[in-house]
Amino acid sequence: MTVRVPVDADLRAEVRAAIGRARELRDSVERPPVTQNDRLCVRCSLAPVCLPEEARFDDRDGEQPVRLLPEHPHGQVLHVMESGAKVTRAGDELVVRGRELPDVRLPIVEIAQVVLHGYAQITTQALRLCVSRDIGVHWTTFGGNLIGSIAPAAPSAQRHLRQFKALTDPSIALTLARKLVVAKLESQLRYLLRATRGAGPRASIVESAASTLRDAVRRAAHAESPASLLGHEGNGAAAYFEGLPALLADDIDDRMTFLGRSRQPPRDRINAILGYAYGMLYREVLQAIVAVGLHPGVGFYHRPRSAAHTLVLDLMELFRVPMVDMPVVAAINRRTFDATDDFSEVPGRVLLAESGRRKVVEIIERRKADTWRHSVVGYSLGYARLIELEVRLLEKEWMNEGGLFARFRLR
Length: 411
Description:
The structure is a single chain. It is built from 13 helices and twelve strands. The chain is α/β, with parallel strands linked by helices. Among the domains are: 79-140, CATH 3.100.10.20; 157-369, CRISPR-associated endonuclease Cas1, C-terminal domain (Four Helix Bundle (Hemerythrin (Met), subunit A)), CATH 1.20.120. The protein has a four-stranded mixed beta sheet with strand order 1-5-7-8. Strands 4-3-2-6 form a four-stranded mixed beta sheet. Strands 9-10 form a two-stranded antiparallel ribbon. The longest helix is centred in the middle third of the chain and has 26 residues, at 170-195. The mean pLDDT is 88.
């Protein structure tokens, strides 16, 4: 059937106006606001990027938004941990060739990231396949520190400009930093209280830590400078790690004693586990930031003192307790780690052996797959996807959309 459409002056004017508006948007670094017509968003392919439901959150009078962001990321993370193992390519598959174990073949469509631990290697052909499929490749040390990454990135020039403009404004940076620190300290406080609930009277060290954390939360919420905020966070974090040993089972191996937080080098076995797990968290946050299109090196709280990206260090604070501390303490109490076989001791430090590293990787990967109901927006996401959501909510802070950043809490 043929439909005749009369092309008159009004239609020509409408087309010219649409072309003019498109050119205006192309030349602007400002993103247009989310439409108020929510029916246009449900089947839009860009909905997981702009999160229109979250942008309209404050206008919904308590109504929970519809989850348009997929619950879990596509694909699995391939960890290559055997020293000397090599990742090669065979067609559209990655082949992991170890020195002792048989070859493992994995279809590229099932892989989201490749992580090479220690002295594992990857061929140029396999690397080209990963890059062509937007699969991140990461190199880490035996201690879990990230050496470098090749990660897929969203087109980001305009996002970078908006990010730089916002985060170089001291007032915006301080406001975001207060939200971040309060969220972190409240997570630490709630975990200490929840983990010791129902076990009789709380130990005096837990009560003392909880009191200090409550005071730190109150002071951090009204901090007038980054320096004072850093001091309140430091006081709260010190109290939290003083109370953390009370969460460990009484009858675990004496060699699994927690001697207080120590980073470089780790002085005990629990610090070795935490350091490796925090390194994995750092990589996950970095991957999410780059994928969203923000610059990982321009943050709002941490100050550049090393090669670490400051925005990654900032956003890690939101996930240290739920993604690392909680599953690690639970695994220790389940006797997951063997104090002899899973660690090696050298003068002044304790390191994870290969078996210990494999256990930490399994703990964190399982945690990433767990789903959690967001305490504010009301829908459930896997922890891996929750990191991406928080990065996108951060971007909305300088877009004046939603104000949901750093508002989720442990129940």
